[in-house]
Amino acid sequence: MLFASRVSAAWLCIAPLAGLYAGEALASRANPYGFTNAAQSSVPYTATPFMAAVDCAAMNKTTPAGVVLSAQLIAVTATAPEHCRIRGTIPAEIGFDINLPTKWNGRLWMYGNGGFAGEDADSAKEAESRGAGLAKGFATVRTDTGHLASKEPLATFALNRLDKIVDHGYRAVHETITLAKALAGEYYSRSASYAYWDGCSTGGRQGMMSAYRYPQDFDGILAGAPTLRWSDVMMKGLSNQIALDAAPTLTVAKFGNVFKALLAKCDAKDGVKDGLISDPAACDFDPAKDLPRCTGAVNDDCFTDAEVASLNRLHKGPIVKGKEYFPQNWGVEHATTSIPWLAWPGGPSPNVLTLFGESYMKYMAFEAQDPNYDWKTFNFDTDPDRMGRINSILNPQPDLAAFKDRKGKILSYWGLADAALNVVMGTDFYQGVTTELGAQQTQSFYRMFLLPGVAHCSGGYGPSQVDGMTPLIEWVEGGKAPDRLAAKLVENGATKYDRAYCAYPKVTVHAGGDTENPANWRCEELDPQPTGGGCTTGNGADAGLPLLLLGAFARWRITRRGAKRDRA
Ligand SMILES: [Ca+2]
Fold first, then answer.
1. What is the pLDDT of residues 482-500, one digit of tens each?
2. Which of 152, 408, 448, 462 is the most exposed, fewest CB within 10 Å of its CB?
């Protein structure tokens, strides 16, 4: 068992994080605030005009493809209406869970996975997601992607099973939604009017992959912080750990002090002193100059040379063949964003990215798998070139013309303080689609929103309370394209942030007055974007010129007066 000997009693007490070990705590819809604006929606999607046409018991059968269905009528509860729960396994090991409410809104809603997936369908997190969809009248759909983390934790499922890597990469979602459409058609004696995807992280990646590989599967895709380049993220995990090992005195408390110094220097550089760094690229924070340095005893209030070097390395990210290409925004040092991705006090690993990165390099990254692989032998110059196969399986490509043509819509968002996944993946992918289709055509079906102070998928210190589903449904069914995405932070009944962010590449600029009134912000255009080099959707090492473009994007800057491009 990986890390079993290192699992401490203290870790077992950290219930919300414990599931990360098996991926469970990561699995769900994109954001727990999905559907919260349903009552205000211009599309009344919670109305349930359709009724079950057959008994749930009749769904206990074997499909023409040989999949054995196990169906059970579940009585109404406080969190979910009466529904027919259908479970089973699509070969080889794709577990699915399809729930058909007796009173139906005519729509399918499939939610995504987290990390290496393999979640238990009966976990509390799964029940929460399932109930959230059923309560709004959706037929809910999910898969474990072809393995169970309780039996095969992290990436171990991949050992000698290329078929299971493919199932995890894209096949499981396609097969499951295809089956769900057939079962719903039978159960209600009518086809689903719409199918939606809702996921973040791995779940965001799954949504983007569906748009790329199976454009007919979903009408609308909500993709929070999609892991568009797994290998780069895992390499960042290793690179981070090298930096952290070189400065073991960098504690959560110290990261907190970095954040304080960062805010002091950069908060106002986006035009508003509001506790948020809304333009990370404009933040010229320099740990060597902007942090108090230790001259005597080392404590939480001062920083050593080794700590400064470590902070710089964390910011730069992995360096491949001498190039920085995967920068990490400043602003992830706050405890609400750094834990558990940078620091995991009491965890079974120094942090989650290291835990994931080690398993990935053993079981998934290379065609020659090695359970005894020592990640410290990873060669950042040559090993990325050995990851072509896994990149081709896990990474969606920005060729979304077919999805656009079938009138599919993508609403994507990222937390600018996401310590796990780098926003540069999102801006680069978006640019890739723009290169293929042009800016106007891209905006016609794909909109992305960047949320300051928001951590990985949800949480953080910024306006993380987001309902992406309601505007997505309004876009798909009502033709109302989301120019802005509402995002709030309400704590203990008090509104700290009330914002509405503009669709990338527009920037959200304060126009004066109360900052917590979305009407006091306006959307402004950036200058035309750099083009000419394609896009980086493979691993960093796969792309030479595109790496340079990433650097160009990192230098997009917003000024107090509006927006401009800074080539400095
Ligand atoms: Ca600010």
1. 999 999 999 999 999 999 9
2. 152
